[in-house]
Every structure is written in C-alpha cells, then in structure tokens.
Write a structure and sequence with these properties.
Blueprint lengths: L5 E5 L6 H13 L5 E5 L5 H11 L7 H25 L3 E5 L2 H11 L4 H11 L7 E6 L2 H4 L17 H17 L4 E5 L4 H16 L5
Helix pairs in contact: 1-8, 2-3, 3-5, 4-5, 4-7
Bound molecules: thymidine-5'-phosphate.
Length: 210
C-alpha cells in the first residue's frame, strides 16, 4: 500500500479554512480515499490540552516558550497521529502546520527564524506536507469575518500590525517553497474557494484517485 498524503491549510484568522477542509474531505472520500482531518495546535489529547493553555490569555508567556509549546504539540501530533495515518495510506488534512510557526512566531513575534527552522529539522522527522494550500486574504478583509462577541484568544486580540507581519511571513514561505505551497484567492464565496482547491488537487494527485 502506498503512503497517504499530508495536505496542510494555512492563512491568517478568518480566511475560512475550517469549513473548506470538511468539503475537501468529502471530495476526496468520494474518490475512494481514506481521509483524516486534524489541526494544529492540537490533534491529540495532550495537544488539545496544551492548546487550551496556549490560546488562553490568562497566563503570560514569552514568544520562545510559545514556540516550544507549539513544537511539543507538533512532535506528539506527528508521532501519535500523522505518521501512523500516512503509513496506513490515509490522507491527512491538517488545519495549520509548520508554515504557521514561521509566520506567527517568526515574522509575527520576531523569534529568530534559524531557531524555528532548527526545530522543524530536529522534531518533525521530515514529515513535510505534500501540498500546502494558502488561503490568501489580507487582514483588512479577513477581520470583517471575525465572529462578533467571541471571547478572543491570545492571537485574536493582536492588531493589524501583527497580522500584516504574519501575512509577510507566509509570503516568505511561499517564495522559499513554491513547489509545495499553492495560493488560492480566499476573497471569494465558499463554492469558488472549494473549486480552486479541487483544481489544485486534481492537478497534483488525480492519478492517485481510485
Ligand atoms: P486556529 O484558531 O486557527 O486553529 O489556531 C490557533 C492559533 O494558533 C492561530 O491564531 C495561529 C496560532 N498558531 C501559531 O501561532 N503557530 C503555529 O505554529 C500554529 C500551528 C498555530
């Protein structure tokens, strides 16, 4: 049996990743593919508990401590879920992965990129996405989609300056990994966004569909 594929979905908040991932799951399942949806930070019992601590703004945390928590969560996620699923031939759809650390902790919070790249090299066991879909939407538009009256988390309270830096971080990753990361225009309705992604999938993987 051949290994499954890892597809990650990235973008700033409010770009509509989560709803789209579910439709993509259905699209792939209809083509005979076993699919597992997961997310970062999170994905395991351990990771989901740490996610709560990480996103909760009650505690003070340095940017590097934040980075290390995220990699602790990621390392567990890869070992417990992602690697075993891929080796069973399951396709893993992951809501955020390594590019978010470069964008948020690196560009957004100013952590040295060398440190983040070392963590990627040392603690992700070469588990790289086969495809990363970047939902392209600028903060000024995305923020209009933020839910009103929601109790905002550690990241959601940050301002446009932060999210513009995060966006630049994603642009940096896209330039560095243009073979892996594809951009879709997220300033469109759900159907259009879905169609853009299925086009990408068909171009890259259709020969693997049963
Ligand atoms: P979510 O609410 O979009 O699932 O993600 C929670 C937050 O975690 C989001 O604001 C981005 C942040 N995050 C990082 O800062 N670095 C990372 O490596 C990942 C995976 C997420």
């Amino acid at each position: 049996m051949s290994d499954g594929k890892l597809i990650s979905f990235e973008g700033i908040e409010g770009v509509g990743k989560s709803t789209t991932i579910n439709s993509i799951r259905e699209y792939l399942e209809a083509r005979g593919i076993e699919v597992y949806c997961t997310r970062e930070p999170g994905g395991t019992k351990f990771g989901e508990s740490l996610r709560d601590i990480l996103l909760n703004k009650k505690s003070v945390i340095t940017s590097e401590a934040e980075l290390l928590i995220i990699f602790s969560i990621r390392n567990q996620h890869i070992s417990e879920i992602i690697k075993p699923k891929l080796s069973q031939g399951t396709w893993v759809l992951c809501d955020r992965y390594i590019d978010a650390s470069i964008a948020y902790q690196g560009f957004g919070k100013g952590v040295d990129l060398k440190k983040i790249k070392s963590l990627i090299e040392l603690f992700t066991y070469n588990v790289m996405p086969d495809l990363t879909v970047f939902f392209d939407l600028k903060y000024e538009i995305a923020k209009k989609r933020f839910p009103k009256n929601k109790n905002k988390d550690r990241f959601e309270i940050l301002d446009s300056e932060f999210f513009n830096k995060v966006y630049d971080g994603y642009m940096y990753q896209i330039k560095e990994h243009d073979n892996r990361i594809s951009i879709i225009n997220a300033n469109a309705d759900k159907k259009n966004v879905f169609n853009q992604i299925t086009l990408l999938l068909d171009k890259k993987f259709s020969f693997l569909y049963k």
